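Consider the subject:
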Amino acid sequence: MIIFIASFPVLVVSSYLILRVNVDREVFENAKVFLFTMESIRKHYGDVTRPAVMKELPERFIVEAMSTSFNARGVAEKVRAEFPHYIFKHISMNPRNPINKADGFEEGIIAKFRADKTLKELKGLVEKGKVEYFYVARPVASKADCLRCHGIPEVAPGELLAKYGSTGAFGWQANQVVGALTAYVPTAIAKKNAQNALILFASFYAAIFFVIMIIIDRVIIGSIIKPIEQFVEVADEISRGKFERDFNVKTKDELKTLSEAFTRMKLSLVKAIDIVRRKQ
């Protein structure tokens, strides 16, 4: 029992620390996969769909088919319908879609990317609306071909102006950090799973320990306590002149040796009593 009391807290704490590391790794991987998915959607529309549409309709800009941000946002909303706390934002200081407007924390992310052009990724924990998230952010830098839609309103496609107006996401310059793609994944689910795993492990360890203790208890009772009790009973009977019972021990250890010694002592005592009786 002392071993259990001493080892149980150590095992629980060490298991918690291991599970905590695994939780952080799991949530980070989920956030990376989520962000990579959104990046891949943007890249596909930018590299495949938009050029194909432009080839067929060079004078048109069909937002639903050609805007990388529009389509990534649409997919993100589909994901969020199933996983409400999974958040994707193309954060910007002056976005076309107000939902992508950077808050104070996200403005700091953009500022860091602008200050260090070699910085490719930021990650960590942040609390939003009393929910803890693990976030991953990667910078978005403008290219020369982005300026058609993000340079000045006067040269922007009419369809774009009709949908979003002439104020948001304009004034870009080539090779400028204009925002960041950011994915937020809640930590609560992974933490809950870790807690359940910890409870299961602790319960399993306690059950195994008590089973072992019961087995040890049975072994001790059968191999040590009961033979000693038998020794006491037989010795008590011998002390009252009853020599019918023997010291019977089936084990092959020190108790067996002790049993044989007691048996020899009993035989010697019986012989001594017989000699005394004959002399009388």
